[in-house]
Design goal:
The protein has 15 helices and 15 strands. The chain is α+β, with helices and mostly antiparallel strands. The protein starts with 5 loop residues before the first strand and ends with a helix. The structure holds zinc ion (2 copies).
Length: 423
């Protein structure tokens, strides 16, 4: 496979820019960055076969989940069952194109592209020489899509919608609902088996750059690719392994992040003032805001669900903006203290952001389920789009923030600390 002139065991940490030499790992072992503790490589046992079987079963479950009816609804003698595709057709039929597009991306399109790319990639490992170009393409798709997979958030949204409806109607869980649960669990399992460095090492090694260990790439005039973990020469514009543009530190990282945070704060105002949902019951239309929905759930005694929605929709977006804003401030005027805690905060903000989507999914599910004209119907309110943009903007803000900036003033201290630890 011509890997002789390539390194597979040298990698640069994308969070602290530290060059690490990865020892040969057995199945089931993982390697953490020697400087910041970020997991750089996890090797799973029989990973190709497990990815194949988990991925194919996920696709099978997806096929089942879209084939049958998803939820049943009955109230005052009116019965209605909806499939997952009905969810989309109701939203599109009512003119909510963006919301419909968002749901189809989150539920079907992105997971399907992800799974097909992954399955093709793992299958192609036996046919290395002819498929190098397609492999790189698939692997880039996999890396880009992974943070945007939200099927688990949608499932929680379905459960919240069930609680919200339980006082108004009888809801039955149909066959596709259980298939969808299997789809979510299997997709999570598949994603947990994916390790981008392992996959990139299977596709291609990286060019030899003779780095020193126990120093940052920047200190040696090198660049760590944030996309695939390769270590490349400082004058390179693109990574020679994955083709992604490389930079020692993301240009204008802080100003981009701050701009996205300000934009999300601006959108946060209409998201909370305008109604996110309009409920029509016996001819009366009643709008409800995010907070209104939380208070209603609380008054109905669904305390856990009220807390979940309050935390996911009100607290998390604000906390995320504050945390990222503070991290930007700390990178501009760096202090050498608490860098590890700051990195932890950054990882948490990256991790929790997508859970804010719950309320958007709840509204989409209720809209598709409750469509009985003047007797009872639910429509999305204008706040849905502003609220979705808050979430997307804060997720982009977390992605554009370059965590290596937090370590920059810290590195000298930490390298000497590391040497002490080794001796
Ligand atoms: Zn690190
Ligand atoms: Zn790369």
């Amino acid at each position: 496979m011509g890997h002789t002139e390539f390194y597979e065991n040298i990698t640069t940490c994308e969070e602290c820019d530290f060059v690490n030499e990865i020892p040969p790992l057995q199945g089931g072992e993982r390697f953490r960055c020697q400087h910041c503790g970020h997991v750089l490589l996890s090797v799973h046992k029989f990973v190709s076969i497990r990815i194949m079987s988990a991925g194919l079963s996920t696709l099978l479950m997806l096929a089942l989940a879209v084939s049958f009816s998803f939820l049943g609804f009955s109230s005052n003698g009116i019965e209605r069952t909806v499939s997952l595709f009905d969810t989309l057709s109701v939203l599109l039929g009512q003119g909510y194109l963006l919301l419909g597009a968002l749901i189809s991306l989150a539920l079907f399109v992105l997971p399907a592209v992800y799974l097909f790319s992954l399955l093709f990639l793992v299958w192609s490992f036996q046919h290395q020489d002819m498929l190098g170009f397609a492999q790189r393409y698939c692997l880039r798709w996999i890396t880009v899509i992974q943070p945007w997979l939200m099927v688990d958030v949608f499932l929680v949204g379905v459960l919240v919608a069930l609680v919200k409806m339980s006082s108004l109607a009888d809801i039955s869980l149909e066959l596709s609902f259980w298939a969808f649960c299997g789809y979510v669990l299997l997709l999570l399992k598949t994603v947990s088996l994916v390790d981008k460095r392992w996959l990139w090492n299977q596709v291609a090694g990286q060019r030899q750059v003779f780095p020193k260990m126990a120093a940052t790439a920047k200190q040696q005039g090198l660049i760590g690719c944030q996309f695939c973990g390769a270590t490349v020469n400082g004058h390179d514009k693109h990574c020679d392994r994955c083709g992604h543009s490389v930079y020692s530190r993301r240009p204008k990282s802080i100003s981009t992040t701050v701009a996205l945070l300000i934009a999300s704060l601006v959108m946060y105002v209409p998201a909370n003032i305008f109604p996110i949902m309009e409920t029509t019951f016996l001819g009366n239309t009643e709008p409800s805001t995010i907070m209104g929905g939380v208070l209603l759930l609380w008054s109905l005694g669904s305390y856990p669900v009220a807390v979940i929605i309050f935390v996911a929709s009100v607290i998390i977006p604000l906390a995320k903006v504050l945390a990222l804003g503070w991290l930007c401030w700390q990178s501009c005027y760096p202090s050498r203290q608490f860098t590890e805690q700051k990195i932890k905060l950054y990882r948490i903000t990256e991790f929790v952001g997508r859970w804010s989507m719950i309320d958007v999914f709840v509204v989409a599910i209720l809209t598709s389920l409750v469509q009985m004209g003047n007797f009872m119907s639910i429509l999305p309110g204008p706040a849905v789009l502003s609220f979705t943009s808050v979430i997307v903007l804060t997720m982009l803000a977390a992605m554009t923030f370059d965590p290596r900036l937090l370590w920059d003033k810290d590195t000298v201290v930490s390298v000497s600390a590391l040497r002490e630890r080794k001796e």
